Give the backbone structure.
Amino acid sequence: MIQLRNITKHYPVGFGKHEILRDVNLVIHQGEFVSIMGPSGSGKSTLLHILGLLEEPSDGEYLFQGELVHKMSDKKRTQLHRGAIGFVFQAYHLIDELTVYENIETPLLYKNMPSAERKSRVADILDRFNIVAKKDLFPNQLSGGQQQLVGIARAIVAQPTVIFADEPTGNLHSDQAREIMELFKQLNQKDGITIVQVTHSEVNAGYGNKVIQIMDGKVY
């Protein structure tokens, strides 16, 4: 499903360059639950952002579902962003001015989905995540765990094939973190969604079936 070939990422610094990723080769199959682990500054989040099409590599090739990403049209990449890929952030990234319902609905508006189908899809997700009673609240009226639930609901409402999660439980206490990880496990095992998470937590990594270690920009 995902293949990286000799991916590097660097930024210019003075007359030289600062290398973040070095010759990363990686294969992720449909239906896997992959954890990317490594110390702070090792390149984990940069790698995840490249996988999620949020950043461009400096060199190398990225194949998503058999297609070279750098040769895709802007339209195709936008379609992937809005359809095949869901992203969950540590800091939730909800829109403060929108209600829970409106936050979850946002990806469907980008897809120009008909109103009736949007309402049905959001209603199903609210029910599944047991947050129907929260639908008219704003993010600042929710706990951290509830905000992250809404973030995940928003990520899966468009029915993506893969979810990229960047330290999804980093701001949560242990009970909330366990709830979120159990939800990811369910999405992976019952819905068949491929999940790629960046985590510092051995416990969180244990929910997946594959661990990738990264150190100084190299994958081991």
Notes: The domain at 32-39+75-219 is CATH 3.40.50.300 (Rossmann fold). The first strand starts at residue 2 and ends at 13.
